Structure formats: C-alpha cells, structure tokens
Amino acid sequence: MLTAVLTSDNHLGAYYARFRPDRLEERRRTLQRAFTQVVDAALERRADLFLHAGDLSDRPDPRNAERAVVAEQVRRLLDAGVPVCAIAGNHDSPRSYGYDGGTLPHKELEALGAIHLLEGRGKLLKTTIRVRNHTICVWGMSHDPNLAPASCPLERVVAEHSRSGDLDLVLLHHGVEEWTPPFVREKEAVLSRAHLEQLQTDAIGVGHLHAHNATRLHSGAMLMNPGATEHMNFGDEHLECGFYVLHWDGRQVEAEYIRLTPQPMRTLAVKVTERSEQNPEELLPWLMGQIQAISDPRQLLRLRLQGRVRDTHMPHLPLGDLQARGSEQNFHCELETSGLVFYNALADLPLGYGVSFDAGEELQNVAAAVLALYADDPTEQEICRLAAERLAADYSHLTGGAR
C-alpha cells in the first residue's frame, strides 16, 4: 500500500486590506498553520509522496516569512524521505515575463533539489520517482492564464500523456467542468470531463476551486479537488477545509478526505427598515445586541446591513460605532452597506396608484402626500399648504392660466 497526500490553495501570505496590521500578521500565521497541519498529517501517516496542485502562496512574489515557512516544511518532508511534487496555480505564478522575470517562486526549492517542479504551461511534464520498489510517474501542468475562456487546458496536450510506471498521477490547476459555476465557466478555461476521461491515469489532483470534491471517472481514475486549507474570503465560510490522502493498493487509488478546522468566519445579515421606522432611537442598541449575541474573539465577522433608513434617522445609525464594536468583540469585523439605503422622505413620496398625464393633477397629489406626512404637526402643515399654493399658482402662470 502506497500513500500520498494531496493539497492545494493554501494561499500563504494573503493580504486583507481592511485588517489592522497586527491582525493581518496573525491571520497570515493562521494560513501558515493550516499548511503546517497538512505536512504534520503526511508525516504522521508515513506518506510516501507529497503532492501540491497549485496556489501554495497567494502571490507570485511571496514574502520572506512565507518562504521561510515553506522551506521549513519541505525540509521536514525531505528529512522523512517524502518526495514533493508541485505545480503552480493562478495566484503563485507570474502572468508575464515582465513580472519578476516570469520566474515561479518554487524555482529556488527546485534548484536546491528539494522539490520536483512541473512548471510547464500548455504542456504536460513528467517526473519519475522510485518509492519502495515502485515506480511512480507524476505528470503536471501549471496554470496558464492566457487560455481562452471556456476552452479546455487539456485539449491540445492530452495526447502528450501516456500511462507509465506502476502508479500514474496527474496534477492540474483549473476549474473542472461539472464543479465550476456557470458564470465562472464563461470567464476562464475549464477542464472538460471528456478530456479528463482521456487521461489513462490512476488519479488526477486538481487545484483552483476552494470547495473540495472527488469522483471516480469512467476510465477508473480518481479525480480529486482538495479545495482550500483555510477559509479565504466571505463566501467560503460554509465550505469545509482540508486535503486528500490517496491510498493505492496496486490496483486503484482511493481518496480519503481529511478535514481541518478553519478560523471561524460568519456573515450576520440584518434588516433595519422596520426597527428604524418604529423606534429609531433603539436601532443602535438593538444592532449592538445582535453583534454581541454571535461574536467570538477568533471570528471573522461580516455585518451586512440591509433596508431603508430615513436620512433624519441617520444619527441613530453611526456606522463607525458599529464597526468598532464588531472589531472589539471579534478578530475582525467587516461592514457591508451595499444593501442599505438612506432616503429623504420628501423626495421619496408615494404618488398613489397609476400615473396621471395631467401635470397639475400630479402636483396636487404630491402636495396631498406631503400634507399627510406632517399630519401631526400644524406648523409644518401650514408651511406645506403655503408652498403648495405657491406651486399651484406658478404652474397656472406658466401654463397660461390665471395668476
């Protein structure tokens, strides 16, 4: 029985623009710990091979802190006699030769003989490894950002693959047709099921999508997408995080998914319209209570405010205070207000049902609506009545009526 660990999308060094500097560094250490846990598992299970399917780092020019962590973990694997095979993803490979000379950050580890790097774009490359009297052939093709949207990265290279060795493996970094949302398939190259079936291999490890998935192809190959090892952004919060362990018994590969515990991440969506209209002075205390009820010192919280609030009630909804309270009670709080509308009552009047083609009649409708709005304030009603009379007189003058 041979065992291999497959991981991808660790995104080491990811940058979060709205984080405090100290929290940003702590968040990056969380990403590093997730990758370290994958290596821990490989060593605990005495893995024979460590496979990486791209996006080890979040940028093609990782910081020294991330380089040091990767070097330390690769050193641990090498000391245990575990070979490392890797490809580059869309995040950790330069998009052009003008960016950092077009050089992958993995190259320094390859130059030291620490990893087997399969960096070919638009070409399947192969490395052969001897493990416990078995010959393992690992094929790989790094992500190519220049492919046409909706095309398949394997279309022109699938013929380059020919099964060899006792165990044959393929590493790729693109979305998979059946697992990629339609709106994404329209924007980028995606691996088609038909071309994946043409690869006469034992297992295919694919990076890129953050939701893990696995299936047995008709060809018998095990197709696996390990997903991310940590929640990267809001939207990932409901996804499981982890990696795959591959077991080969000499006939076929089986996949075992190992879950990791990510940093807590949550979205709190709050509709404020009714509360703001009925008790605007209670709006802030109520929202503070909503935040406190679900807060966690380790949690990444997104507070999503939705609804309509009168501009006169804006003082009862100090967004800065909400942001501060959320950040005090959580690791980080992000305030989202795209669904929040502040409106002016006079400029947002209901005009009744239907539309009159008589402009004078519409002016009367508006005046009536304004008067109804201030039904409990005689002073405001008198001001509105005088304004309505002046508007009616001016309209009559403009249209040739009596002044």
- CATH homologous superfamily label of the largest domain: Metallo-dependent phosphatases
- What is the succession of H and E elements? EHEHEHEEEEEHEHEEEEEEHHEHEHH
Q: What is the CATH first-level class name of the largest domain?
A: Alpha Beta
Q: List the domain count as a whole number.
A: 3
List keywords for this structure.
403 residues, alpha/beta, Purple Acid Phosphatase, chain A, domain 2, 3 domains, six-stranded mixed beta sheet, 17 strands, 30% helix, elongated
Brief account:
The protein is built from 10 helices and 17 strands.
Describe this structure in words.
The protein has 403 residues and is of the alpha/beta class. It has three domains: 2-260, 4-Layer Sandwich (Purple Acid Phosphatase, chain A, domain 2), CATH 3.60.21; 265-346, no CATH class; 349-398, no CATH class. The chain is 30% helix and 25% strand. It has a six-stranded mixed beta sheet, covered by helices on one side. Strands 5-6-7-10-12-11 form a six-stranded mixed beta sheet, with no helix packed on it. A hairpin with a 5-residue loop joins β11 and β12 (222-225). The radius of gyration is 30 Å and the shape is elongated. The model is unreliable at 351-356 (pLDDT under 50).
